[in-house]
Each structure stands twice: as C-alpha cells, then as structure tokens.
Amino acid sequence: MNSFLKLKQELVEIGDSYYYRLLAKQLKKSGSVLDVGCGRSSPLKKVKFKGRSEGIDLYRKSITDSKKQHIHSTYKIGDIRKLSRYYKPKSFDSVIALDVIEHLKKKEALKLISDMENIATKNVVILTPNGYYKQDELDGNPYQVHQSGWTKDDFKRLGYRIYGIRGWQKLRGEHAEIKWKPWFFWGFCSFVSEYLLYYSPHLSFDLFAVKEFS
Predict the structure, then answer these.
(1) For the chain, first and last CA: distance in Å?
(2) Beta strands in 106-158 (DSSP E)
C-alpha cells in the first residue's frame, strides 16, 4: 500500500471512530453478541469486545478471511434469511447487523429483523444506509448487491431509536466513499457534520438503529 492510500485509510478509520464508540456503548453490558452477516472484517474488531461472539455469513470466503483476523469466538456458514433455524430464542445478549439488511429484499430483511429480536435478550443494533444506494457485487461476492433502501420512518414503525452517523448524506456515494474532491477537505466536512446530525438521521448517510429489551 502506497503512502497516500495508507494515509487515506488512516483518515477513514478516524472518521469512523464515532461509529465505533457508539457501537461499543451499545455492547458495553453484553456478554455475548451474534454478528449477522459478519463479512470479512466486522466493525466488532474495532470495539475490542471481550465477551463471546459468533459471526454468521453465507459467503465462505468472508468467513475464512474473518477467521484469519480472529474477530469472533466461533463462526457459522449459513443463510441469514433463515436465522431462526440456527439459533434458539434468547440465546445472545446482543444481535447486530451492520451494513447487512440493504443486501436483502425488504420482506426478507423484515423477517430477519424479527428473528434477530427473538434471539436477543438485551438489544438489537442495525446499521444501514439512509435510503437506497446502488451497489453491485464487490470482490467477487454476489451477496454485496444492494436490494433495498431504508428510512428513519421504517425503523420508527418497528420501535427503534435512530441516530445519524457518517455525516451529511450528500457527501457520500457507493461504498460510503466521499464523492467530491479534494477528498481530504470533504472528508473533514463529513466528519464534522456527523456530530451535528446525530439527532437528525434523515440528513445523515447512515442510520444507526437500536432496540432495547427490558
């Protein structure tokens, strides 16, 4: 990796630090986490979660890559659209789906969310783009195609609290990349706007949705 790309990656990590802190806060009281559609490099590794975690994903290469990074305690290759087949009710404290539901059709994703709520004892955490963003397969993974878009109102109807992250919606495009140049300037603007739009998720690029159970 050349010096420019390395610097850019470091700045991306700094830009996502707010997201990681928010995720860590939601998992603070959890002893176990199910990471649905965990992918190859789950954000869970950034929050240094110390409890038991399991990652489930249908794409075998993603599971293989994640195992090499030792992100989760255990892994399962499985179809998340059939999540209830693999896990019993109330079997994990927290269930998370980060950048996942947009890869499913709306009806499939709603069923997944229902299954996640049945499995969780403390909370469910979902991250998804605000609205629909076109995305084709990525790195040979056909499951990376976007099939649905989500709004704040979708989650309000389901009883979730919603927060805005990753800054002003119009600054980012496919793969959450900053659209405008110079990249460093607009990336900084996105970082600053994230703090301003935390309670205005309808203007943010990503929706961070949380549902807690008593």
Answers:
(1) 47
(2) 120-129
Indicate the fold that domain 3-212 takes in CATH: Rossmann fold (3.40.50)
The count of C-alpha atoms lying within 13 angstroms of the C-alpha of 195, restricted to the half-sphere facing its C-beta, is: 6
Question: 210 pLDDT exceeds 90?
Answer: yes
Cβ neighbours, 10 Å, residue 147: 15
- For residue 9, give the H/E element and its range: helix 3-15
Q: Report whether pLDDT(20) > 70.
A: yes
* 134 touches 167 (CB < 8 A): no
Exposed e or buried b per residue across 157-182, where buried means at least 16 C-beta atoms within 10 angstroms of its C-beta: eeebebbbbbbbbebbeeebebeeee
C-beta of residue 39 within 8 angstroms of C-beta of residue 62: yes
CA distance readout (Å), 155 to 80, 82, 110, 127, 202: 19, 21, 10, 11, 12
Whether the CB-CB separation of 46 and 64 falls below 8 Å is answered with: no
Name the least confident of 4-8, 53-57, 71-75, 193-197.
4-8
Which residues are within 8 A (CB) of 11 and not within 5 positions of it... i.e. 6 or more apart? 184, 187
